[in-house]
From TrEMBL, chain A:
<feature type="transmembrane region" description="Helical">
    <location>
        <begin position="239"/>
        <end position="261"/>
    </location>
</feature>
<feature type="transmembrane region" description="Helical">
    <location>
        <begin position="23"/>
        <end position="45"/>
    </location>
</feature>
<keyword id="KW-0812">Transmembrane</keyword>
<feature type="transmembrane region" description="Helical">
    <location>
        <begin position="301"/>
        <end position="317"/>
    </location>
</feature>
<comment type="similarity">
    <text>Belongs to the binding-protein-dependent transport system permease family.</text>
</comment>
<keyword id="KW-0813">Transport</keyword>
<keyword id="KW-0472">Membrane</keyword>
<dbReference type="Pfam" id="PF00528">
    <property type="entry name" value="BPD_transp_1"/>
</dbReference>
<keyword id="KW-1133">Transmembrane helix</keyword>
TrEMBL record, chain B:
<comment type="similarity">
    <text>Belongs to the bacterial solute-binding protein SsuA/TauA family.</text>
</comment>
<dbReference type="Pfam" id="PF09084">
    <property type="entry name" value="NMT1"/>
</dbReference>
<protein>
    <submittedName>
        <fullName>ABC transporter substrate-binding protein</fullName>
    </submittedName>
</protein>
<feature type="signal peptide">
    <location>
        <begin position="1"/>
        <end position="26"/>
    </location>
</feature>
<dbReference type="InterPro" id="IPR015168">
    <property type="entry name" value="SsuA/THI5"/>
</dbReference>
<keyword id="KW-0732">Signal</keyword>
<dbReference type="GO" id="GO:0042597">
    <property type="term" value="C:periplasmic space"/>
</dbReference>
<feature type="domain" description="SsuA/THI5-like">
    <location>
        <begin position="46"/>
        <end position="241"/>
    </location>
</feature>
């Protein structure tokens, strides 16, 4: 029995004891997490430069803004470009033919001080285009009235500030027409991880930030732009899409499946085409769905429905067909008519398996979600994944992916757990994760409080209970599976979940 | 009794029909727009409420570029922003349209970006490039090859959605990509030392960006489209003033989700056309200075490279009358 083989980690076809299986279950999640940590916190990443003061140069094809991370080579190129620009300006000045520059250009040069000025508290947030305030910062900094607290400014840059302040003062309230010197780029040193390898702590913080974010204020035009909805609102959108799509699919599939599984007439009428249709990729109908159902949530719901439907019909028909023939014969013997057989024998008889089928189907519905949400207007979590994925903001993408994964997983476990209450007479082959966790927590508590003998007694009690349930099972005398023309996949799925 | 009942039903139904017809008349014009700087500029009119002011109900639908053309072809939009080349492609394979507003021409934002070590298109011989086949960057590449005296077969093309090109480029799978801003800029940033080896600045006027609308909608709702064109003129005028630039940049950058500082250089690669400048482009002429000439060049390419089979009736895709009327000419 389970307890006697518990001493060994490896025993052919032997169950592990509760303690060991809980440990392994935890490890199955902890190991990937550990690999993730090693990969992202490992010592193999070199140094990158995160821009704190930026600049623009026609010598460069890219514009780097504060927060960008640059490789050492690019960083050097960036600095050299700005130095060359400044040298040119100085040279022209010395030869008494100073370079001209537009007001706009000069304003942009001055604005590069905004980031350190904000961090040091010289400017408030949102003043990045307040050119007069920025100009005052330059003048005060040159006069030595401001001292850097949180973010130092290099002595080279302070020289540049002083040089430019002379020009600013000379032009009075007007803007100088001569070219101002550019601040040299400054950066903090960062770990040069690839963008897609976001460390766990960053993902966790971003996840927390996402789910606790409050709704941003609506814009005057009431436009719902890409950034206007919170993560939770998008999550709700995704749920709506998947639940409606799934419900629509089963509303159609359940009657069709029951009919096809009960009457050969309907089986031959529906199943060949449905089987054929199930091989056609649902996303290929995207444009058609858009043409028929518009750009809003219509085509998304329909895609989830279309993706789930064919499999559902086949699976439900198969389940219905596997109902024990003896039950039907008994009912006929008792004088049941066609309608009574269907309503009083077939439907209640297949209900537990039907429930399990639907649970599995709900799982497959999740796989259609991301494709569906990109149809027409992007919506839901897929919008976050797609939009931010393109901008390489993976710290925002991963929490959204995680939410989909967790939702599917937890929902499946929850439905499995509930199934045990709905149909207590059915022997559940695989214990749900939640159910096993709850029993494991209970078992752990018992071990902590009681003596060692308490555990086997508890196990025995559970076993007795399960034996009682098995005795109640309707389909304990199920005939061996007959080969039928259904696809391998359907057969496999059905066989897996109804092992005797 | 039955007769009266039928009459009642008939009346209700015709009333309902009349209502829906009336509703269709009053429904806002639906326009799909995407992340090209010249089109994001419509956002200024939206945010400032200028459409309401002009007395026209417009619903701008923010979409992925290719998807917006699909939605237009599927009949879900009354108008869509696209390049003159893509309008011909969409017309040949999906649904024809007609240009009523020319927003800009691409002046460097469309780029072929190559890995470090590749200095020109000539170095691309025997190498691979990722771009969206049959659409505007494909055309840019073909034009570049022609100018460099190269054949189409000299470069292997990997068909890739434009929005995914930065990722594909960063992965190192290909030697170059073809994309427009902001994608092309992203690619440049992602791969240190990469370079734009051929851009639309080398062939100004090859790519015009315009508002294309449904031909029937233009006929039945001409007055409304005219108002839309007038708002565009107001937008261009607003953006031409340096003092408004910060405000404009904030609106544009906000729509795309980057910072204004990042967005500013993208405007330099987009030559927004003032109403007067656009008038010249509307004139019938050969060469890239006119939308007729430019579309002819594109059409020849499309036929030559099998994007579609028969040459298009170019004049049917262009209607300068709205632009002229909006200026009072």
């Amino acid at each position: 029995m389970a307890t006697s083989s518990g001493r060994h980690w490896f025993g052919v076809r032997k169950d592990l004891d509760q303690q060991r299986s809980s440990l392994l279950m935890a490890l199955s999640f902890l190991l990937p997490l550990l690999i993730w940590c090693i990969a992202s916190y490992g010592p193999w990443w070199e140094v990158a430069h995160q821009v704190q003061i930026s600049a623009e140069s026609p010598r460069l094809q890219s514009i780097y803004i504060v927060g960008n991370r640059l490789e050492p080579g690019t960083w050097e190129e960036f600095q050299n470009a700005i130095k060359l620009d400044n040298e040119e300006i100085l040279k022209a000045k010395e030869s008494r033919t100073p370079l001209e520059s537009s007001t706009r250009q000069n304003k942009k040069v001055l604005r590069q001080i905004y980031q350190p000025a904000m961090i040091n508290g010289w400017l408030a947030r949102g003043q990045e285009t307040d050119d007069e305030a920025i100009r005052q910062v330059w003048l005060k900094l040159a006069a030595g009235e401001l001292t850097a607290g949180r973010q130092e400014i290099s002595s080279e840059n302070l020289e540049i500030v002083k040089e430019n302040a002379k020009l600013l003062q000379a032009s009075g309230a007007e803007w100088p027409t001569q070219s101002l010197l550019k601040l040299l780029p400054e950066a903090s040193e960062e770990v040069a991880r690839p963008v897609y390898l976001v460390p766990p702590d960053v993902v966790a913080t971003s996840f927390w930030k996402g789910i606790t974010a409050t709704k941003p204020e609506a814009t005057e035009s009431g436009d719902e732009g890409a950034m206007k909805k919170t993560l939770l609102e998008r999550y709700a959108e995704s749920w709506r899409t998947i639940v409606l799509g799934f419900l629509l699919a089963i509303v159609i599939a359940v009657p069709l499946g029951l009919l096809a599984g009960t009457y050969d007439f309907f089986s031959k009428l529906f199943e060949p085409f449905v089987n054929f249709f199930s091989y056609m990729p649902a996303p290929a109908f995207g444009v058609v769905l858009m043409a028929i159902f518009g750009l809003d949530s219509g085509p998304k719901i329909m895609l989830v429905c279309l993706g789930t439907l064919p499999g559902a019909v086949l699976m439900l028909a198969k389940t219905t067909r596997r109902l024990d023939g003896a039950l039907l014969e008994a009912a006929q013997t008792l004088g049941a008519n066609q309608r009574q057989m269907l309503a009083n024998v077939v439907v209640p008889g297949v209900l537990p398996n039907l429930y399990n089928d639907l649970r599995l189907l709900f799982g497959t519905a999740w796989t259609w979600l991301v494709i569906a949400e990109l149809l027409g207007f992007k919506s839901g979590l897929a919008e976050v994944i797609d939009t931010h994925g393109r901008r390489f903001q993976f710290e925002i993408v991963y929490p959204a992916i995680l939410m989909i994964g967790l939702s599917g997983f937890i929902m499946d476990q929850l439905l499995g757990f509930l199934g045990r209450f709905f149909f207590p007479w059915v022997d559940q082959p695989a214990q749900g994760f939640l159910a096993s966790i709850s029993s494991k927590i209970a078992g752990g508590l018992r071990r902590l409080t009681a003596t060692k003998e308490a555990a086997p007694t508890a196990t025995a009690a559970i076993e007795a209970e399960e034996a009682a349930k098995a005795a109640l099972t309707l389909q304990s005398t199920e005939p061996p599976e007959e080969p039928e023309e259904e696809s391998e996949a359907t057969l496999g799925a059905v066989a897996k979940k109804s092992e005797p | 009794m039955l007769k009266r009942y039928l009459l009642k039903v008939g009346l209700t139904m015709s009333l309902a029909l009349a209502c829906s017809a009336f509703h269709a008349m009053g429904a806002p014009l639906k326009i799909g727009y995407s992340d090209w700087p010249g089109w994001v500029a419509w956002e200024i009119g939206i945010k400032k409420g200028w459409f309401k002011e002009a007395g026209v109900e417009v619903e701008f639908v923010w979409m992925d570029y290719v998807k917006s053309m699909e939605a237009y072809a599927a009949g879900q939009l009354d108008g869509v922003t696209m390049t003159n080349g893509d309008a011909l492609v969409t017309g040949a394979t999906g649904k024809p349209s007609v240009a009523i507003v020319i927003n800009d021409f691409s002046n460097g934002n469309d780029m072929i970006v190559a890995k470090p070590g590749i200095e020109s298109l000539k170095d691309m011989k025997g190498k691979t490039i990722a771009l969206e086949e049959g659409f505007v960057e494909h055309l840019l590449l073909l034009k570049g090859l022609e100018l460099n005296g190269m054949a189409e077969g000299d470069i292997t093309i990997k068909n890739t959605p434009t929005n995914s090109t930065p990722q594909v480029f960063a992965s190192g799978e290909v030697d170059a990509i073809g994309a427009w801003q902001p994608n092309s800029g992203q690619a440049l940033k992602l791969v240190a030392g990469s370079k734009a080896i051929f851009t639309s600045k080398d062939v100004p006027g090859l790519i015009y960006d315009a508002l294309y609308v449904d031909r029937d909608s233009l006929k039945s709702r001409r007055e409304e489209w005219l108002k839309v064109a007038k708002v565009w003129n107001k937008i261009v005028e607003y953006m031409a003033d340096d003092d408004n630039l910060d405000d404009a940049l904030e609106i544009l950058a906000g729509r795309v989700g980057v910072t204004p500082a990042e967005y500013e250089p993208l405007l330099a690669g987009t030559k927004l056309l003032s109403a007067e400048e656009a008038l010249k482009v509307w004139e019938k002429a050969d060469g890239l200075g006119s939308i007729y000439g430019s579309s002819k060049v594109v059409d020849d390419f499309n036929v030559k490279f099998g994007v579609y089979a028969k040459p298009a009736d170019i004049a049917a895709y262009i209607d300068p009358s709205i632009a002229k009327e909006a200026l009072g000419k």
